[in-house]
Every structure is written in structure tokens, then in C-alpha cells.
Amino acid sequence: MKPVFTIMSALLLAVIATVNSCPPSDRAALLAFKAALHEPYLGIFDSWTGTDCCHNWYGVSCDTESHRVADINLRGESEDPIFERAHRTGYMTGFISPEICKLTRLSSITIADWKGITGEIPKCISTLSFLRILDLVGNKISGEIPYDIGKLNRLTVLNIADNQISGRIPASLTSLSSLMHLDLRNNKISGPIPRRFGRLGMLSRALLSGNQISGLIPGSISRIYRLADLDLSMNKISGSIPASLGKMAVLATLNLDCNKISGTIPPTLLTSSIGNLNLSRNGLAGKIPD
């Protein structure tokens, strides 16, 4: 009976291991994602072997119940021991493969500060209905923000700063009702800020500096009750400063430096809760209000 018991135990352990590992489809999607990237110095993908991508695959985490891949967290600047051993920051080339969109239970995608990743944000990213964090800061990603990104109604963080993104801010972005942190700094984004920007009712930080954004500051921004940090500096924004910005309850930082803003300084700005106000390098006229 002992050999039979041993065989049954081995089979049971094999079944448990299979149940607790990631689905083959998720593993295949991760390997296709990896195949589009090249990381020559740190070996961060060396651990991406074996059949179970839920355990000991660097930067990959899975949901504890479904065992589907939930998070991809790959940062090129980190205090992780793999960086300390190499005595350098990360560098990666290639592109973000659309195969990532087959990981349909993703809640977080962080592919940040690799400096050499090019290509576009996969248009299919807007189909990842569980996505809460999209952080692609510090690469060389080009192309436009997906036009239907507003479908990601769980998204709380959108950070694509320090890339080469062009085109306009899509109107659908104003449908991101859960968005708290928006960082589009230092890209090549042009056109106006969407008129209905004020629909982003959960937003606390809107960082849009260092682009080619033009047009007016939408008055609807003042309806974003939680907005604490608004940075529109180093763009081509024109028109006057909406007086309603000075009536925002928690706005602490307003940076409009280096634009084409004209008119006078609204007195409301100087009696507001704004502690860090920068209006320099514009075309403002008149006296500074008492």
C-alpha cells in the first residue's frame, strides 16, 4: 500500500501546484511581452522560467484567489538588490507588446524609468477593465494617448511623464471618474485641455507641464473639489486666468509659468488657500491686487 500512497500523494501535490499556478495563457502572454523587450545589464527576466509565473517571476504578482496575473511592476530605478549588485540603474529597449492586453485581470502596469523603451502605448490597453495604475514614466514612448482611454473607469493613476507622447489629450480622458493622479509632464502633447476636464471629480494632482498645450484654461477645473496641485507651466496656454481657481478649497499649488496668459491677476488668487503660486513669464498686465 505504501507505493500506492506515495503515488497518490505525488498526484495530489501535482494537482495542487497546477491549481495554484498561473494559467498557461497568462504565462504565454508574459513571455510574448518579454520577447518584445531587451534588458542587457541586470538580467531581470532571468527568473521568468518554469510553468508558474505567479511565483518568483521578477516583477510579477498574481491574484491570490484567481491566480491570474494582477500586477506587472518593472522599475528601472529601484533600491532592489538586483540594482545594488549591478551598481547601476536599468536600461531597456524594445516596445510594449499588445500581448500584454491578454492579461485581462491586470490591475497595475508599471514599466517605468527604463529610458530606452520606444513604440506606442498599445491601443488595446483600454480593454483592461480592472486596471487601476498605468505608470510608464521615463521611457521614449511615442504616439498618442489611446482615444478611448476613458473606458478604464477603475483607473486611479495615469503617469506617462518624460516620454515622447504627441497628439491631443483625448476627450474620453475626462470620463476617468476614479482618476486621482494625472502626470503628462515633458511630452509633446498639443491642442487644448478638454473643456470637460472638471468631470475628473476625484483628481488631486494634474501635472501637465512641459508640453505644447494651447487654448484656454477650462473654467470647469474649479469644480474639481479635491484638486491640490495644478501644474500647467511651460506650455502655450493663452487667455485669462479663471477667477474661480482662487475659490478652490484645497488647491495648494498653481503653476502657470511660461505660457501666453494675458489679462490681469484675479484678486481671488491672492486671498485663496494657494501657498505656491507661479505666474511668471506670461503676458499679464495691470497691478498686483492688494
UniProtKB/TrEMBL annotation:
InterPro entries: DNA_repair-toleration, Leu-rich_rpt, LRR_dom_sf, LRR_N_plant-typ. Residues 24-63 form the Leucine-rich repeat-containing N-terminal plant-type domain. The keyword Cell membrane applies. It is found in: Cell membrane; Membrane. Keywords: Cell membrane, Glycoprotein, Leucine-rich repeat, Membrane, Repeat, Signal, Transmembrane, Transmembrane helix. GO terms for cellular component: plasma membrane. SUPFAM superfamilies: L domain-like. Pfam families: LRR_1, LRR_8, LRRNT_2. Gene3D superfamilies: Ribonuclease Inhibitor. It is a single-pass type I membrane protein. Residues 1-21 form the signal peptide. The keyword Glycoprotein applies. It comes from the Eukaryota. Belongs to the RLP family. This is Leucine-rich repeat-containing N-terminal plant-type domain-containing protein.
